[in-house]
Amino acid sequence: xxxxxxxxxxxxxxxxFIICDVLAAHLMHKILCLQGLDSRSACWYCSLWLFNPLxxxxxxxxxxxxxxxxxxxxxxxxLKRRQIVKAALFYxxxxxxxxxxxxxxxxxxxxxxxxQQATENDTPTIRNKQHLKKGISLLNPMFIVRLLNKDxxxxxTIAGLEFLILGxxxxxxxxxxxxxxxxxxxLTRRDIRHxxxxxxxxxxLTAESEWSSILGLVAFLxxxxxxxxxxxxxxxDLTFCCFLHTAIFVTFNKVCTSQYFLWYLCLLPMVxxxxxxxxRRGIILLALWFTGQGLWLTPAYYLEFEGQNxxxxxxxxxxxxxxxxxFILLVLISNYKKRNLQSKTNTE
Length: 348
Prior knowledge:
By secondary structure, this protein is mostly helical.
């Protein structure tokens, strides 16, 4: 995709990513309008992405997170319009490029259950207990039947075939190195460089231990449990569910850097219209989030540029940032209410 960087001009890739930032905002606007917002209000929420310095910095320095934002938002847009084929094509490509959207598979499948379309005036909080009770009985034959309806099979078939075909093509071109670096590496990855993850210091101290690989795999357990619970609780509001999925995945991941925040920030504009707290409280939460990052970045600076041993302080700041993120997620969940808006959905 970035070959023109060599043969055409050096800033080609950056221009592509910046254009994808704008396309992502356009898709946000379309999704917000489908949710029932007027165009002017939708533009205000999209501006929170367009004029956000973090996406600007990440795209202009040459990271491809904006491309993933476009693919994920396209998937959600076409799912909302019940255009399963187009949604599956964008989803299969997104999983091929980055592995994290694979966590959306379960809530997408649940949302495509026969006769399980969400009503717009129900809140996820009210429906949580009912969904969890249904979700627990995974062996219920009716539950399995609902999962294997036409839309689910169509989505899985198209997305799966696209993923396998692309994987086979790249495997033929690059061999085992492609599979290892793209997919398998994430299972055994133990990044001991300082990052926002609460696990980094443990992985750093146990890097030479025989238990290191096992600890790296155990770190997936909190992610897995929270993602499964969230899927059953919020699958009827797929956009909010995917936002929670991504935020949980990033917060509890073995590796967490600033560019990972874009994975859920691109979904935030679609969530904000349904939050019941005031803008003042939202600004306080935003300030709290930036404070957590600042407290982490201070010892990280002294480690990276001054050569001082601040690993313990970085880890403690990471734990504080984890607590801040969990608190913000709890506030968002408790103050989220799906508004009773007329949805303009289209079918294939």
